[in-house]
Write a structure and sequence with these properties.
Nuclear Transport Factor 2, Chain: A, about 40% strand, six-stranded mixed sheet, alpha+beta, single chain, globular, 4 domains
Length: about 450
Amino acid sequence: MDFTNASILRIFNQADGSLETWQGLAELKVGFTGLLAKFTNMSDVVVPVSIIEENSAHGPGGAFTAGSNPASGFSFFHDVFVADADGKLFRQDAFLHHVPAGGVSSVTKTKSVSGPVHDSIAHHNEAFGKLDVDMILQDFTNASILRIFNQADGSLETWKGLAELKVGFTGLLAKFTNMSDVVVPVSIIEENSAQGPGGAFTAGSNPASGFSFFHDVFVADADGKLFRQDAFLHHVPAGGVSSVTKAKSVSGPVHDSIAHHNEAFGKLDVDMILQDFTNASILRIFNQADGSLETWKGLAELKVGFTGLLAKFTNMSDVVVPVSIIEENSLQGPGGAFTAGSNLASGFSFFSDTFVADADGKLFRQNAFIHHVAPQKMQKAAASSKIECPNALRNKEHCTILPGCQWCLPPKYLPQKGWCWPSDDSCAGMKQLEAGGFLPGALLV
């Protein structure tokens, strides 16, 4: 009932590299029947993340959900939904890690499709197999962009136009020194359509050449040529790690907003940060360490959210942000940015931020994915102390601005007092309150 005959379901199992693709209601019935059969024991299903957005002038609506079901063999399942104009589910991309009892299953279904984008990707793949740079360039134009990010050393290269792309591809292909074990288990190609630009997503590896993985995302232009290729790889050559970073100087409203945002972040200045947002802006923060998700909308709420977030940056001495990709608004779609970094001294093993700009270049949405565990001294403090909230300040906003505090126990459970726990580990604090008899079995934020 939620899909149409134009809908597509794709299921990629990271455990065995299998990929299934199903299109239309008849095929989706087969696909979902097989998928749901894997959920053999639902006793421990959890879905801590579910973000849903309606269609708007800013783009198509959809949803992102993340969960797990270990009893059925799912260490995780992530689903991304894209809605059509009527709110029906046009596409569902399911990324999961499933190992059934007794081993690993694998089902792959591929479809034969043709079109300009398929032709470009097929030609590109042939040229890659031959390590032929000139042949590769035939699928690009002088407006094309190639970006290569190596997770192994944090290097980022950006090349634009055929002359630069020739340099970039020459360096990239030179790294493929032994193609004997190349595998590309995932290759998803889509033609241009009324729903948006076509492109492709491929994922593979080549350990013999030092590539533990390489992931490529292609975006096609109106003629099916490759307008953009973003290559994410992990490459360590024999003898060590190489690093080449090429940055470009670009200006525009989105670049200005991100530059100002970065400056404000460096100063940990909340009011300065808010200047790049509007009252329609949304901030979402998902902490992979504890599964917590915060959502803040409008400038008043964003002030609370950023205050709490920036309070976690207690020691900025080792902050690194090796990736910062910024794009202006264009005919291809809304501009925005992607940044990735870490700050181990503050307990951030990583933080990745995606920004979406509005028509004026302001930051309409920021999605922050972090892995944050407070330094050990904060954890010890959480185990032995609590802070009493003054009567006039028993609220979420007050708790957020306390050093190291992420949540509080509302005063309705303690008629005379509200308690805030000085900890970024909400689970530890909640267990302490439950052990003390202060908190029923329900989670309160």
